[in-house]
Here is the input.
Amino acid sequence: MKELPATPKDMQKAILGGIRAALLTQGSATKAELARRLEISFPTVSKFLARMEKDGELLPLGMDDSSGGRRAMRYAYNPAHMLGLAVFLERNATSYTIFDASGEIRERGEAPGVLGEDVRRLAAHLDEIVARHPRIRAMAIGVPGAVDDGRIIHIPDYERYREVDLRGALQERFGLPVVVENDMNAAVLGYSRRLGSSRRSSLVYLLFGQNGPGAGILINGDVVRGSTSFSGEITFVPLYDRLTLQEALARSREADPGELGAEAVDAASRLIAAFAAILNPREVVFSRDEASDELLVRIARRSADYVPEAHLPKLSASDWPQDYLDGLQHLALQAMIETAGG
Here is the structure.
């Protein structure tokens, strides 16, 4: 038998989460199949399934064909029973998706940015969404800053959000599980979810961005946060004697507005070389809005001046807003399955 959490409430959440995850992964299951998969007793599974069926979480699919004994009822999860909300905050816009437990998108939307105001404006916007969709059971919020256990610890352009325990404030207001995540961590997670396991092992996602450069780092399939949750704040990387990465990019943009000039290409290449020498990632991903194929070729060629080409990562470009939302959606879905209704 698996070791279960110590408290009855945590044990209940663990069993509910396990049943939900099993049904959503497998498509359907009988009581006996769930008991074997989760390594819990048949009576315990029966008790939880009875409650879930009463609450509308389950869809009875009918009896299995007999294999000599009593025919067993087969169950599927009702994906419409719970909805999740993923929201990302940028300077000029607040984008969101609402999705069901199977991950199917039910609604997409965009509203004006709220980072220039205090958290009450964000909460009011979320109030409107939750009022329209009362089946929302979890939410994930993405922010352009460093996050430590739901608290925003570094977000230089938006002082009203700095040191705000955003997760705590929203959980208290809505009574729902809330995940608060750094934008680049969510993006690298979202991008990696689309890849096969062999390509998830080591990735870096880079964004030059309107809020300054940032990176999301995935090693052995796990997001790297660092000892103080400051990992990926590449704004501060000193690539030159007197210039950080952000300063080098800013100076290059002044000389070549609208594109990355030679100085910015060199700065990006030095960063790629540093990642190659320290982490040796398989791939470095850029936002498609910031990096054309021609620019990636220029960066790759310049990177080879610093690190032997055989050890450089593959450079690619992807849809950063979609990867960002996909990562947040995964986090909200995980919270919804594991903790909602326990």
